[in-house]
Amino acid sequence: MSSREYAKAQIDALPDGAVEKVVDFIAYQRYSLGLPDGDDFDSDEEYLASIPGMMESIREGLATPLSECVPLSAVWPDV
């Protein structure tokens, strides 16, 4: 069994909390090697489109009349 196959088999045997730590370590390894982490997008639009339901939410917000919107000062009083 190769090291890669062994690691995959061991991950399947770990509890979820430990798997999260392994995923963090993998992300660090990819970063330190200069490899893309899968979260690299060419634009903000591409990133937002990758979030389930986000484009529909944005379209719904654009279609909402300003009179129905919460004033910015109510959301961020210091702005």
Describe this structure in words.
This protein has helices spanning 3-13, 16-32, 44-49, 54-63, 72-75. The chain has 79 residues and is mostly helical. It is elongated, with a radius of gyration of 21 Å.
The topology string of helices and strands comes to HHHHH
Low-confidence stretches: none
User: Number of DSSP strands?
Assistant: 0
Describe the sheet with the most strands.
Answer: none
Structural class: mainly alpha
Total number of helical segments?
A: 5
The helix content is 55-70%
Can you give the mean pLDDT? 88
What spatial form do the alpha-carbon principal axes imply? elongated
What portion of the residues fall into strands of 2 or more residues? under 5%
Radius of gyration: 21 Å
Distance between the termini: 59 Å
Features:
single chain; 79 residues; mainly alpha; 5 helices; 61% helix; 0% strand; elongated
Topology:
Blueprint: H1 3-13, H2 16-32, H3 44-49, H4 54-63, H5 72-75
Question: What's the quick description here?
Answer:
With about 80 residues, the protein is mainly α. Helices cover about 60% and strands about 0% of the residues. The mean pLDDT is about 90.
